[in-house]
Amino acid sequence: MRLSQRQIRASLVIGLIFLSPGFATGSTLPTLIAAGPNQCSSCIWFSSTPTFAQNESYISFHTILSSDLNQVLPVFVYVIVRDGSSGQMITTSTASGILPASYPATSNLAVILVVPNLLPGVYVATFSADSADGTISSGAWTIQFTVNAKTYPLGIQTLTIVSATSPPVGVCQSWCTDISYQNNANASISIVVSLVFHNSIGQTVYMERVAEWIAKGQTVSAHLSVSGLTTGIYSAEIFAISSSGVALSSESVVAVAL
After folding, report:
1. What is the pTM assigned to this prediction?
2. What stretches of the chain show up as alpha helix (H) in DSSP?
3. What is the side-by-side order of every strand in the sheet holding 175-183?
4. 104 preceded by cis ω (within 30°)?
5. Contacts of 167 (CB under 8 A, 6+ apart)
6. Does the structure show a pLDDT above 50 at 27?
7. What are the structural domains, with CATH classification, of the chain?
8. Which of 127, 153, 148, 157 is nearest to 139 (CA)?
């Protein structure tokens, strides 16, 4: 089926999100680590080094996807963001669009990929693209970029477990632990640390909550205890949320024998 010029122009905006006023470009320019081929016969490629812009609630990546194919090509563009130190995957994003036929010159598609805002730090982003039918792929481009400290939404990366210790058996009525969290946010927050006990068949048998106030960049310790449980094998889940119910930490699960 042959697409009209109007259809082609309309298709270019599929999956693209345009910047709104108030965007602040990250002050640290991204560093190109690795790039796929600049051009090859009958393929698609990234013709510009991806850049990024940092907003209060999200980050956008901007790049240009090019084609030398004399055909209209629906495509998907991907970005995978990893921690710059550990290599752990943090988030992903996908956009879609249509590359026009290249004749008589190379065709280009402006792409914007959006991910939730990230905690301050160094990250690595890898970009790739495929045709919708999966028969044509681009080379991968990888950049290193820095997210600056600024206000950002709360999430499971807001708090990091610094330590968790349990006194010897007999010190507490049944079981207890002291868990310390570090506040990675650049604002002081009120948190609720929760302990949930499950028996061997997964039933919830005990819950404990402790409210704490933690200043930005500081550490706070919460004491959680269990009493009145019979002898047996249990699993203890520990996590922290904001006073409004937003998850602020990953969940820690430990096996407990009483």
Report:
1. 0.49
2. 5-11
3. 159-165, 175-183, 219-226
4. yes
5. 176
6. no
7. 5-147 (2.60.40.10), 159-257 (2.60.40.10)
8. 127
